[in-house]
Amino acid sequence: FYGKGGYLDTRVRLVRKPNLETGAIDVDFDITEGEKITLESIKIEGNDKTKSIVILRELVLAPGQVFDSVRMKISKMRLENTRFFEDGTVDLDSEETTIPGRRNLKVKVVEGRTGNLTFGAGYSSLEKAVFYAELSQSNFDLFNRRSAFQGDGQKFRLRFQIGSQSNELSLNFEEPWLLEKQLALGFELHRITSDYTSSYYEQITTGGSIYTRKRLFELFEGELSYGYDQINYTDISPSAPSFIQNMEGTYGVSKVGFTLLRDTRDKIVNTTRGNRLELITDFA
């Protein structure tokens, strides 16, 4: 309660006083409030590849505001949930200044590995042999070649899969803070070839989608998307029923989607409390 008001030095001492006549115990709270603290500036250490702005935009404290210790804990949780830093290495603390009633916020981090290259092979009765590979970077920077395209908090994923019954190629990109505002913009492109949907024909789906996501109010986020697919039915077997043979050709599917999301989880990985609720609706 006191930390929320900026009284960082408040000390609360609990004193128990037994009452020998009644057998009960009285409790006294001895409170030393201290002075109200204002946040002077923010110092960041340990971000070798991640830009300082990427860290600053996750903080819910700003210079000139009351130094709220509850908001400091929320800021730490938000930084940990980015998964840009090693587990247990995000540390936020107050730092003394020469100005009475003012302190700095010191943010210390240790950079983690945010890029992944995954590949493998498998076998199933449906697909027979399958080989796949995926390259992803959760702290991507499209315009920073010197830092191996890392450090701006963008999301990037490239995946391909080759199998005896299907092939897939997909590309995903997201800018979570467009123009440094809490507005995400992303797109997805894909091409999928499969002939396990039916033994009569082969289906080729080529298309993509674009979406934007924004915090609406409190813990609710809204996402609006538009996607377009071209579906081509080809290589139709002569023995296929007439209604399937009439399907041969290319069809366009235009789709608008809206998603409402509420996420109260304390941690994305190893969650200990909270929940995630999604309402998804599409019109095609």
Describe the structure concisely:
By secondary structure, the chain is mainly beta.
Explain what the structure shows.
The protein is mainly β and 284 residues long. Helices cover 8% and strands 51% of the residues. It contains three helices and 14 strands. The strands form three sheets. It has a nine-stranded antiparallel β-sheet with strand order 6-7-8-9-10-11-12-13-14, with no helix packed on it. Strands 3-5-4 form a three-stranded mixed β-sheet, with helices on one face. A hairpin with a 2-residue loop joins strand 11 (202-217) and strand 12 (220-234). The chain is elongated, with a radius of gyration of 27 Å.
Write the layout of secondary structure elements.
Layout: E1 11-18, E2 25-32, E3 38-45, H1 52-56, H2 69-81, E4 91-96, E5 102-108, E6 115-124, E7 128-140, E8 154-163, E9 166-175, E10 183-194, E11 202-217, E12 220-234, H3 242-245, E13 249-263, E14 276-283
